[in-house]
Each structure stands twice: as structure tokens, then as C-alpha cells.
Design brief:
Blueprint lengths: L5 H4 L6 E2 L2 H5 L6 E2 L3 H8 L10 H4 L6 H9 L3 H11 L3 H7 L3 H4 L12 H9 L19 E5 L3 H12 L3 E6 L7 H4 L9 H12 L3 E4 L8 H7 L2 E4 L19 E3 H12 L16 E5 L3 H13 L3 E5 L26 H12 L6 E4 L2 E9 L6 E13 L2 E13 L2 E4 L11 H5 L22 E3 L2 H4 L4 H29 L1
Parallel strand pairs: 3-4, 3-6, 4-5, 6-15, 7-14, 8-9, 8-14, 9-10
Antiparallel strand pairs: 1-2, 11-12, 12-13
Helix pairs in contact: 3-5, 3-9, 5-6, 7-9, 10-19, 14-15, 15-16
Bound molecules: flavin-adenine dinucleotide and iron/sulfur cluster.
């Protein structure tokens, strides 16, 4: 156990944040890590409960009480090793996981929870880059696996299988590896040098990378013929559209088009002038209140937007847990991201012109603009107020209102994996929500083709993608070894 009186003597410490005005002027991470001694004291708040709920709330089953105890007793190396037993990429989850573990921490019933994510992040940042050192790899099995898609699910699957001795090739249609970690999530949440270090480790462990190679009907069959197993980890990348009058006006974009471009610019790429989507000096409306919408807010503020309004269809969540949402469930409460708090700082700095507004229970009915279609420009958004009836939002009345704008970002979720990639090429069965159907081991409806991550779960979280990638790797390993054993018997 950490410190038997730790939670009585030490208050929960939140991660520090860089000054909002300063961080808005650059692309660097917003977090400031507390000194190691303070993190060790935080680990000491862990009560080592008889029945800990935290590690079953963590999709990876991270052994949280164990690494808290080791860190508290100054055994950093062992704590890191314990963390890496279950989590391939703690440098990622320690930064961007919403930490369902903390919501279910037993201390959270009466007190404030252990700062688990802070401890995880700190362990992943220990000097010497221990977590990026190549790990031992089992002797080569002679079996080959193609992984299609290099997001966290494909990364975890590829790393696990390479460590088990299989020859893994990772295909990625984008020019750089990392999926949404690279081109969705902005640098202010996750700096991309961390991904580069991780891919270098995977290369040294034997994974072969093929960036810039999309898999579709032209090469899917050849890949299936060449490799002993294929894992489809293409994410759920079809954005939900707003099929409304005026949708075709210039200035109405999918959030991912904006975020991808921004991430590429931060990485040093030059975007052709005609394609640039810039929020500088503009009035921006973001439709959608989730992570994607919040990332559009932070990115627009960094680009110097004149005003940003974020609209959400669902009602404003309560500030505290409702009685029907008790511990240890995930609390359905109002969340304020680092991007929202930046907007709040700007409001205090510039009292006369608040730069960020958030509104809930609002449904867009039409975009207005000037000019024709894509050559024209959006000038305002018309919306109505809604209320929930039987779980569905219905208009409160006939009356609509207008919000002037120059840019609209659609961040209303995703509807499944693209059909023109391996899903269509292999003819994989999909469920009613458009996701690939798999069994618990990740097998699809087609022999030797497996699927994992958002492509089979639907748009979710990075921690689930890593857990899914590890699970499919175990399934593929079993499939390859059983196949090899059957062949040996037949021979
Ligand atoms: C803007 C945004 C912010 C988010 N923020 C958070 C957050 O803060 N915390 C959190 O936990 N989760 C967050 N999420 C969700 C999280 O990023 C995803 O759940 C996770 O990345 C899913 O991983 P994946 O590997 O299944 O898919 P992806 O990350 O989508 O990766 C799929 C990869 O497959 C590639 N691919 C697709 N088709 C082909 C093809 N035909 N051939 C070859 N390659 C192909 C794609 O280019 C991509 O690189 C966010 C999502 C978005 C969109
Ligand atoms: S990965 Fe997420 S849920 Fe798991 S221990 Fe880390 S912060 Fe908690």
C-alpha cells in the first residue's frame, strides 16, 4: 500500500497548465508536469483497496494500485515495467485518456480520486526514455501479418505481433503514420515527437512500415494472398454530415479537414493557397460538443479566430452526477476542456468581446450565404431550440434564430469505416451501425481477415483502440499457431 494515511494527508493535485495566453501563441502541449516528488506523493494517496474498481474501469486493465505502490516507494523502474505490461502507449493515454479509472476510484465516493492519469503520464516521461527502448522479440515464427491502418489500434496490434515473432507489415494510406493521433488530435494535446519515438521503437522491434499505401480493390487481394493474416484497423472515418439547405456553401467544412490541415501545417507542410482553411479573423461555429468539436475550438483560437461558438444538440449536462448516474459509473457531467478554459481566459482579458460561446439543445436547420454553392460563402446559420422527448431532440417551437458566421465546422461524430477500402474490397459484413462485425478474437466474416479498433467498435477512445489492438493480436497469434500446428500434423 502507498501511504496508509496518504489520502488524509495529501490533497489531490491536478496537472498544471501553461498560461493560456502564452500557449495560444504556439502549438506546444498545454500541460505542465508537477515535480517527481509531488507525483510520488500523489501515488501515495492510493488506498490499495481490497477490491479496486479502477483497473476494471480501465479498458486496458492497467494494474493501477501496483504501480502507484511501486512509485510511492521509489521503485520507478518497476512501476514503469508494470505499466508497460498492459499498456503499449502510456505516453498517449497519460495525456489524452478521459480516465474512466479515476471516475471509479474508491476515493471518489467521499473524497477526490487518485490522480491516476497524472501518475501514468509522469511514469511515461521518466528520464532516459526507458519506455521507448526496444523490447525483446521472440524467435521468428516465419508467419506474416499485414496490418491496414496505423492508428492506435493498428499500432498496438502490430507491436504485439512483432514481439511474438511474426513478420508484420503496417500499411497506411496517409503520408505519415499514427491515424487520428497524428492528424486528428492537435499538438497542444499530444506532441507528435512522441509518436515518432514510438514508431522508431516498433521499427527496431521488426515492424515494416508502408506509409502512403492505401489498401483498396486494386491491391487487397494480393495482400490477402501474400500474408498469412490481415488485420483491418482503418478507423471509423466517415463523418456525419449535415444534410441541410445551404450545406454546399463555401466555408462549411468537416472538422477533420480543418484539423488534419492544421496538424500538417504544424508538422511543417505547405498547404496550397486555394485549399487553406484558416480561422484567422473569422467568426467560427463548431457543430458538435465532443472531443472533435473541442479540438476545433482550441485550433480556431490558436489561429486567431475573432469569435468561436460551439453548439450541441443535446441538453446541457448537469455540473454534478445525477442520482441515476451513481459511482462507479462514468459521470455524465458538464466537461470543460483546456480549449474551453482558454476561451474563458480570453473572455476575462477582453471583456468587451467574448471570443468563445457554448450553447446546448440547439439544432441547425439551414446555412445562409451569398453567391452560389461552393463558390459562395456561408454568412449565417439558422437554428432552433430543442428539448428531449423520448430521448430524441424535438423543436421547442417554430421560432428560429440566426448566428452570423464565416466558417462552420461539422464535428457531429462518425458513422463507420469507409467502404471503398478493405471493407468493400474483402466484402466484410457490417452491423446496423456500419461497423465491421467481428467475434471476440477479432475474426470477421471472411477467412484470415481480422478487424479491430474504431472500424469494428465505432468511434470511441484511444484507450479502447489500444485494448482492441492487443486483443486482436492475441486472436491472430492463436490463429497462426493453430494453423501451423495443423499443418505440422498434416505433414
Ligand atoms: C479530432 C478527434 C479528437 C479525439 N480526441 C480524443 C481524445 O482526446 N482522447 C481519446 O481517447 N480519444 C480521442 N479521439 C478518438 C480516438 O482518436 C479514436 O478512437 C482512435 O484514434 C481510434 O483508433 P483506430 O486505430 O481504430 O483508428 P484511427 O486512429 O482512425 O486510424 C485508422 C488509420 O487507418 C488508415 N486507413 C484508413 N483506410 C485505409 C486504407 N484503405 N488503407 C490504409 N490505411 C487506411 C487511416 O488513414 C488511419 O491512419 C478523438 C477523435 C477525433 C476525431
Ligand atoms: S489508460 Fe486511461 S483508464 Fe487506463 S489507467 Fe490510464 S488514464 Fe486510467
Amino acid at each position: 500500500m502507498g501511504n496508509p494515511r496518504g489520502f488524509l494527508e495529501t490533497k489531490r493535485l491536478k496537472e498544471g497548465e501553461r498560461d493560456a495566453l502564452q500557449r495560444l501563441a504556439d502549438a506546444r502541449e498545454f500541460v505542465v508536469e508537477p515535480p517527481p516528488q509531488a507525483v510520488r506523493e500523489q501515488a501515495g494517496r492510493c488506498m490499495d483497496c481490497g477490491i479496486p474498481f479502477c483497473h476494471s474501469a480501465c479498458p486496458l486493465g492497467n494494474l493501477i494500485p501496483e504501480w502507484n505502490d511501486l512509485l510511492h516507494h521509489g521503485q520507478e523502474d518497476r512501476a514503469v515495467a508494470r505499466l508497460l505490461d498492459t499498456n503499449n502507449f502510456p505516453e498517449v493515454t497519460g495525456r489524452i485518456c478521459p480516465a474512466p479509472c479515476e471516475a471509479s476510484c474508491v476515493l471518489n465516493i467521499e473524497e477526490t480520486p487518485v490522480a491516476i492519469k497524472l501518475v501514468e503520464r509522469s511514469l511515461s516521461n521518466l528520464p532516459g526514455d526507458e519506455i521507448f527502448a526496444p523490447r525483446p522479440v521472440l524467435p521468428a515464427t516465419g508467419r506474416t501479418v499485414a496490418v491496414i491502418g496505423s492508428g492506435p489500434a493498428g499500432m498496438a496490434a502490430a507491436q504485439q505481433l512483432a514481439r511474438l515473432g511474426h513478420a508484420v507489415t503496417l500499411f497506411e494510406k496517409d503520408d505519415r503514420l499514427g491515424g487520428l493521433l497524428r492528424y486528428g488530435i492537435p499538438d497542444f494535446k499530444l506532441e507528435k515527437e512522441l509518436l515518432d519515438k514510438r514508431f522508431e521503437q516498433m521499427r527496431l522491434e521488426g515492424v515494416t512500415f508502408r506509409p502512403g499505401v492505401g489498401v483498396d480493390h486494386t491491391n487487397a487481394e494480393e495482400i490477402a494472398r501474400t500474408f498469412d493474416a490481415v488485420i483491418v484497423a482503418v478507423g471509423a472515418r466517415i463523418p456525419r454530415d449535415a444534410d441541410l439547405p445551404g450545406r454546399g456553401f463555401g466555408g462549411v467544412h468537416f472538422a477533420m479537414d480543418f484539423l488534419t490541415q492544421h496538424n500538417k501545417r504544424v508538422a511543417g507542410d505547405r498547404i496550397p493557397e486555394a485549399e487553406v482553411i484558416s480561422a484567422a479573423g473569422k467568426r467560427v461555429i463548431v457543430l458538435g460538443g465532443g472531443d472533435t468539436g473541442s479540438d476545433c475550438v482550441g485550433t480556431s483560437l490558436r489561429q486567431g479566430a475573432r469569435e468561436v461558438i460551439q453548439l450541441e444538440l443535446m441538453p446541457k449536462p448537469p455540473l454534478q452526477r445525477a442520482p441515476h448516474n451513481p459511482w462507479p459509473e462514468w459521470p455524465l457531467v458538464l466537461r470543460t476542456s483546456s480549449s474551453h478554459s482558454e476561451g474563458e481566459t480570453l473572455r476575462q482579458e477582453e471583456e468587451d468581446k467574448p471570443r468563445l460561446g457554448r450553447d446546448w439543445a440547439v439544432s441547425t436547420v439551414r446555412f445562409h450565404g451569398e453567391g452560389e454553392g461552393a463558390d459562395g460563402r456561408v454568412t449565417s446559420l439558422e437554428a432552433v431550440r430543442v428539448k428531449l422527448e423520448g430521448g430524441r431532440p424535438v423543436p421547442l417551437g417554430e421560432e428560429s434564430f440566426h448566428l452570423p458566421c464565416d466558417l462552420v465546422f461539422l464535428a457531429m461524430g462518425f458513422t463507420g469505416p469507409e467502404h471503398d477500402g478493405p471493407v468493400g474490397a474483402y466484402g466484410l459484413a457490417k452491423d446496423a451501425r456500419g461497423n465491421i462485425v467481428t467475434d471476440a478474437a477479432g475474426c470477421t466474416s471472411v477467412e484470415k481477415i481480422f478487424a479491430t479498433g474504431d472500424a469494428s467498435r465505432g468511434q470511441s477512445l484511444v484507450v479502447w483502440a489500444i485494448a482492441d489492438g492487443r486483443r486482436v493480436a492475441a486472436g491472430v497469434d492463436r490463429y497462426l499457431r493453430e494453423g501451423a500446428a495443423a499443418q505440422a500434423k498434416a505433414g
